[in-house]
Design a protein that fits this description.
By secondary structure, the protein is an alpha/beta fold. The protein is built from 11 helices and 9 strands. The strands form 3 sheets. The protein has a 5-stranded parallel beta sheet, sandwiched between helices. Strands 5-7 form a two-stranded antiparallel ribbon.
Length: 290
Amino acid sequence: MLLGVGIYKAHWMVSLSVTKDAYNWYPTAHVVKVTNESRKNNKVAGRNLFAIGDFHIKAYATMLNEVESLLSIKVYQFRIPNVVKLIRPMQETMEARDELDKIMTEIKAKAKKNDIVFLASLRMIRLCDQWAKFDEKNLFEKQNSEEQKEQRRIALRQANELIDRLEKLGLIVLIEAPKPIFRSPPFRCSDWFNRSNPICASGFSMDREFLLKMRKPVMESIKKIKAEHKNVYVWDPFFILCPSDACSAYDGDLPLFFDGDHLNAHGNRILRTSFIDELLEIWSGQRPSG
């Protein structure tokens, strides 16, 4: 067993797969390798960015680490299931409320006025996970069902309540709009010896209009949130990741996504400049809300 654990932890050294390229595949806090790009700005140095979300906040680890270094700000990451997911409510159990309250207490202790809270989560119905594809039959009927509409109404109420709490602390809220999602996970289909796996059969290209239709209900919820709050901004990475009619999980030979919806490190770096520009515009007052 110990041998197996050791091999897993060192798989990028012993693996024959292209996924052993940890710098591009795995969204972790890599050492910042930027040498000719200076984004340090004395007006924002020392500010705080609080990143809250499900595992999709962890999938931004590379970008957030590089942003912290390049802007000389402090980034705090908090993972909590279903927070501001907008398609599914967060559990309203005592345990879930206590977890959120603990995060809010830490933010309150560290935050300064006009610090930014970045909210990122999976906000579309997943088409696959790392191990299986899901049935898309009647996808839009399900999405528009009364049950799903009620789920979104509850999630919207919860989001507004959380943002109220953050605004009372003098904080600015930045919501991530939904990114593209895919039917096959690149990390399981990246090599000649695994491309025949049935999970790879759906490929790595998605029709952009299909995805825009999928995310429309959540974009409507985000629009309602913006109407309720003056200090809410939206960062939309969708069109950077999908600049043409067909969205691809790849950028040339390099993947943008690790699986069907989590970014990898290369995808993080593709978005980094846009995210930095968003932060600087908000903090400078040049990015209008609403």
